[in-house]
Each structure stands twice: as structure tokens, then as C-alpha cells.
Amino acid sequence: MPTPSMEDYIEQIYLLIEEKGYARVSDIAGNLSVHPSSVTKMVQKLDQEEYLVYEKYRGLILTPNGKKIGKRLVYRHELLEKMLRLIGVKEENIYHDVEGIEHHLSWNAIDRIGDLVEYFEESPKRVEELEVIQKKNTK
Ligand SMILES: [Mn+2]
């Protein structure tokens, strides 16, 4: 199992490869607001643990396991954003709140949150009912 910090890197690498087709150390450093030397260190660790293959001049590719995990991490992030948006959390708080909680929930909790999001997405009436309560409580 990757640590929370490893998860952040795998998630960003997966997103960069999805967006651009490749993930450069400088882009990873920029997206995670860390020094490039920290990225190099972590990338070597992720290579050792077989989440990716790092070749100094050819760049970096995720292994099938790294890809599978990256996909789940991106899904988890997006699901949590959806959930917070649904329950009425302010847009300006959503990204940082998700970054703060995503590593600390079990996959069991993620699956059940998935049910909750589905419950609301199935019927706009349920969302409206929740909004009535939100309005009452934010008066
Ligand atoms: Mn995230």
C-alpha cells in the first residue's frame, strides 16, 4: 500500500499522463508545490516499489499496478469533490478539503460515499430536499 505522500505523487503523475501523455519532474513539482529534488527522490522510491519505471532521459511511465492505483486515486478525489459539492460546501473550500481528507478514509467508506452520491444523482428531488435543510440551517 502506498503512503499518503506516495498517493499524492501517483495521483498527479496519472493526471499529467492523462492530460499530456507524459509526466515531467518539473510539472510534478509544480503541481504538488514541492522542490524538484523531492520529486526525483520520490520517483526513485516509486520505481523501487514498482509503481512506475523511471529512466533518466526517457522519462517515466506507470506500471500496470501504478496505473490501476492512479485511476482509483483520481476516482476517489473526484468522488469526494462531487460529494462535498452535493452537500453544499462552498466551491472555494472543495479542493483543499478533499486534499485534507482523501488519504484518511477507508475504501469501504469511499464505496459507501459512492452510494450516497448515486442516491442524490438518481433524483433531483432529493437534492432539493437537502437544499431546504441547508437553507434552514444557514439562516
Ligand atoms: Mn487529490
Automatic annotation (TrEMBL):
InterPro entries found in the cross-reference section: DtxR_MntR_Metal-Reg (IPR050536), Fe_dep_repressor (IPR001367), Fe_dep_repressor_sf (IPR036421), HTH_DTXR (IPR022687), HTH_tscrpt_reg_MntR (IPR022897), Iron_dep_repressor (IPR022689), WH-like_DNA-bd_sf (IPR036388), WH_DNA-bd_sf (IPR036390)
Highest taxon above the source species: Bacteria
HTH dtxR-type domain boundaries: 1-63
Record has Kinase as a keyword: no
Record entry for activity regulation: DNA binding is strongly activated by Mn(2+).
Binding positions (Mn(2+) 2): 11, 77, 99, 102
UniProt main location, coarse: cytoplasm
Gene Ontology MF terms in the entry: DNA binding; DNA-binding transcription factor activity; manganese ion binding; protein dimerization activity
Biological process per Gene Ontology, one example term: intracellular manganese ion homeostasis
Residues involved in Mn(2+) 1 binding: 8, 99, 102-103
Function: Central regulator of manganese homeostasis.
Name of the protein this chain belongs to: HTH-type transcriptional regulator MntR
Organism: Peribacillus psychrosaccharolyticus (Bacillus psychrosaccharolyticus)
